[in-house]
User: Which sequence fits this backbone?
C-alpha cells in the first residue's frame, strides 16, 4: 500500500529578552546554576508574575511577519503538571486565546517549488528549568536558571507531508526569527527546538491516522532522521496488523530511533484554566504601530529584491537571503566593489561561505570583511588578477596577510596582459610540443585544453585567460 | 453532574494528593455538590456578554525588559532540603 505521512511541528523559540517573561531575573545563557533563579522563578509563596513588555512585542512582530491576526486581547492560562524543573506545579502558557492567531509561511522545497504551510497559532509561555540526571547520590540535580525564560511556541497546521518538508519549514522559521531579531536561533544552547506530531494514512484517505508526538528535536538533522524513523515505525506497525498508540516519544540521537516516553496512565491531562494572577493581555494599536515601525525586510521580500535589483537567479537569491547576516554581507561587499553582482554572489556563496564552514566560525568573526572582499573582486573586474589567482589572494586575506592590493603587490600576482609577452610564451610552448600540435591539427580538438594548461603553467597562472584563449586559437590554426 | 469514585481518584492523583479509599464516597459527594452549585449558572443567558476578568475592567500591566533581580541563591538554598554544586537535589526523576 502507498502511505502518506502527515506532520505538524511545534517550534519553541526562546525570545531574546534580557530578563525573564514574568520576573526581573537575567536570561543570560551559561550562568552558574541557580544564580539567575529569583523568588518568582522558584515559585516561592506570595510572589506575583509581571509580564515583560518586550516579549509581548516580539510575539506581535512574529505575528505580523507571518501575516497572522494579532489578538488585541489574549489570556494566560496555567498548564498543570508536576515535574521538579517546574517548581510552581504549573507552567504559565496560553490556551484558548493565544497572542498570535492563524498565519502562514511560504517554504521553498528542494525541487524549487513553493509550498504554503499554515500556522495555527503562536503563544507566549515560560520555559522550564533543567534536570541533571548525573549521579548525585541517586538524586536529580535541578538548575532553574532557564525557568521563566520567555518562549514563543509556534504551532503549524498538519500541512507537512515529509521529513524534508518539515526541515524546510523549520529552517524558514529559524531564518525568520533571526531576521526579526526576536531569537538568537542557537540550537546547541536550546534557544530553538521543536516537537513533531507524526501520523501516517493510506494515500487518498481523508481522515488522519493516530499521531505520535516526538519531543526534544534540537537540530535540523535530528528532525529529518526522527521523522523518517517514526514514519517507518508506524507503517511497520500497521502493516504488521498492529495499531499506532497516541503517545509522546523521545528521539534518541545515538540510536537513531524514537522510544515511548510516558506510560498510558500518565496521559496528558493538564487541566488548563485562566491564571488568576494575570489579567488579560491587551495589545493596543500604538503598540502594534511601534512594532510595524521596526519591521525589517523579510527573507521573501529580500529574495525578490535580489532577483530584480541584482539580476540574480532564484537559487542564488535564496541562498544569499537564507540568513540576514549573509544577505547583509553580500550587499556590503557589493557596495565596496565595482564587480558584477553575480560575481560577488559566486564568491560570497562559494569561497567565503566555504572558508567560514571550514573554520566553523560565524560571519561576525570572519577575518575577511566586505571591504576586503569587495576590493579583491574589483581587481578581478579590472583584470588586475584572474579568478584563479584571486583564490590565492583570498586565502592570503583569510590568513590575515592584509588587503588584496597589498597581497597582489607583495606576491607579484598581477595578471600578465601584455599580448606581446603572452604571444612569445605561446610560440615557445607550440614549438616545444610538435606532436600535440600535429594531433590537434589532425582534428583532436580536446588538445586545446592541454595548450591552455601549458600556457597558464608557464605564466604561473598569471596570464590573462581570455587573451591566452584568443592567441592560442589563432596560432594553433597555423 | 456527579463524580464517580474513580474520577475522584484520578483527580487526586493528578493533584498528587493521597486519598483514603474509605473517604472516596464523601469526596465524590462534596465535589459533586460544588459542581451542581456551579451548574445552576448554566440557566443564565450570557449570550453577547464579554467574560469579565476584573471588576474595574483592568488589563495586564507590563514591565520594561530590565534585569532587576540579583543573585540570592545562598538565601534560597538555605531553606532547601538538599543542594549540591549549586543545584537543588530532588528524588530521582527519569523519563
Assistant:
Amino acid at each position: 500500500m502507498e502511505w502518506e505521512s502527515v506532520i505538524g511541528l511545534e517550534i519553541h523559540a526562546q525570545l531574546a529578552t534580557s530578563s525573564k517573561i514574568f520576573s526581573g531575573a537575567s536570561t543570560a545563557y551559561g550562568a552558574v546554576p541557580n544564580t539567575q533563579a529569583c523568588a518568582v522563578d522558584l515559585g516561592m509563596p506570595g510572589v506575583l508574575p509581571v509580564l515583560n513588555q518586550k516579549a509581548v512585542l516580539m510575539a506581535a512582530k512574529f505575528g505580523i511577519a507571518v501575516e497572522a491576526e494579532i489578538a488585541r486581547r489574549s489570556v494566560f492560562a496555567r498548564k498543570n503538571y508536576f515535574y521538579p524543573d517546574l517548581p510552581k506545579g504549573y507552567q504559565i502558557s496560553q490556551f484558548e486565546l493565544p497572542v498570535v492567531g492563524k498565519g502562514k509561511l511560504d517554504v521553498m522545497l528542494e525541487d524549487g517549488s513553493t509550498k504554503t504551510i499554515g500556522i495555527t497559532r503562536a503563544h507566549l509561555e515560560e520555559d522550564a528549568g533543567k534536570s541533571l540526571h548525573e549521579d548525585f547520590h541517586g538524586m536529580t540535580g535541578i538548575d532553574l536558571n532557564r525557568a521563566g525564560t520567555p518562549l514563543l511556541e509556534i504551532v503549524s497546521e498538519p500541512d507537512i507531508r515529509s521529513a524534508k518538508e518539515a526541515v524546510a519549514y523549520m529552517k524558514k522559521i529559524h531564518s525568520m526569527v533571526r531576521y526579526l531579531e526576536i531569537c538568537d536561533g542557537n540550537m546547541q544552547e536550546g534557544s530553538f527546538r521543536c516537537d513533531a506530531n507524526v501520523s501516517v494514512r493510506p494515500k487518498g484517505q481523508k481522515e488522519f491516522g493516530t499521531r505520535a508526538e516526538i519531543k526534544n528535536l534540537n537540530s535540523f538533522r535530528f528532525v529529518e532522521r526522527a521523522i523518517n524513523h517514526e514514519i517507518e515505525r508506524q507503517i511497520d506497525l500497521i502493516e504488521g496488523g498492529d495499531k499506532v498508540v497516541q503517545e509522546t516519544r523521545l528521539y534518541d540521537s545515538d540510536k537513531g530511533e524514537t522510544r515511548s516516553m510516558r506510560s498510558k496512565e500518565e496521559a496528558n491531562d493538564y487541566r488548563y484554566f485562566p491564571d488568576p494572577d494575570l489579567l488579560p493581555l491587551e495589545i493596543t494599536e500604538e503598540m502594534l504601530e511601534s512594532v510595524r515601525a521596526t519591521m525589517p525586510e523579510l527573507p521573501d521580500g529580500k529574495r525578490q529584491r535580489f532577483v530584480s535589483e541584482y539580476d540574480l537567479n532564484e537559487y542564488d537569491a535564496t541562498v544569499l537571503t537564507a540568513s540576514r547576516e549573509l544577505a547583509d554581507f553580500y550587499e556590503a561587499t557589493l557596495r565596496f566593489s565595482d564587480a558584477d553582482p553575480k560575481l560577488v554572489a559566486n564568491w560570497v556563496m562559494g569561497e567565503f561561505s566555504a572558508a567560514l564552514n571550514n573554520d566553523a566560525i560565524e560571519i561576525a568573526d570572519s577575518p575577511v570583511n566586505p571591504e576586503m572582499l569587495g576590493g579583491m573582486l574589483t581587481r578581478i573586474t579590472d583584470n588586475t588578477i584572474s579568478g584563479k589567482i584571486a583564490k590565492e589572494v583570498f586565502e592570503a586575506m583569510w590568513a590575515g596577510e592584509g588587503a588584496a592590493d597589498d597581497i597582489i603587490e607583495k606576491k607579484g600576482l598581477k595578471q600578465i596582459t601584455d599580448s606581446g609577452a603572452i604571444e612569445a610564451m605561446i610560440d615557445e610552448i607550440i614549438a616545444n610540443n610538435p606532436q600535440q600540435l600535429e594531433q590537434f591539427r589532425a582534428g583532436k580538438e580536446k588538445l586545446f585544453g592541454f595548450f591552455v594548461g601549458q600556457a597558464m603553467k608557464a605564466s604561473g597562472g598569471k596570464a590573462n585567460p581570455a587573451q591566452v584563449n584568443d592567441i592560442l586559437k589563432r596560432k594553433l590554426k597555423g | 453532574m456527579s463524580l464517580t469514585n474513580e474520577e475522584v481518584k484520578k483527580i487526586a492523583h493528578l493533584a498528587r494528593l493521597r486519598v483514603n479509599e474509605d473517604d472516596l464516597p464523601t469526596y465524590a459527594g462534596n465535589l459533586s455538590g460544588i459542581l451542581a452549585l456551579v451548574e445552576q449558572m448554566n440557566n443564565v443567558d450570557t449570550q453577547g456578554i464579554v467574560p469579565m476578568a476584573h471588576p474595574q475592567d483592568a488589563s495586564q500591566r507590563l514591565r520594561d525588559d530590565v534585569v532587576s533581580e540579583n543573585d540570592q541563591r545562598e538565601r534560597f538554598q538555605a531553606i532547601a532540603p538538599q543542594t549540591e554544586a549549586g543545584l537543588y537535589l530532588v528524588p530521582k526523576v527519569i523519563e
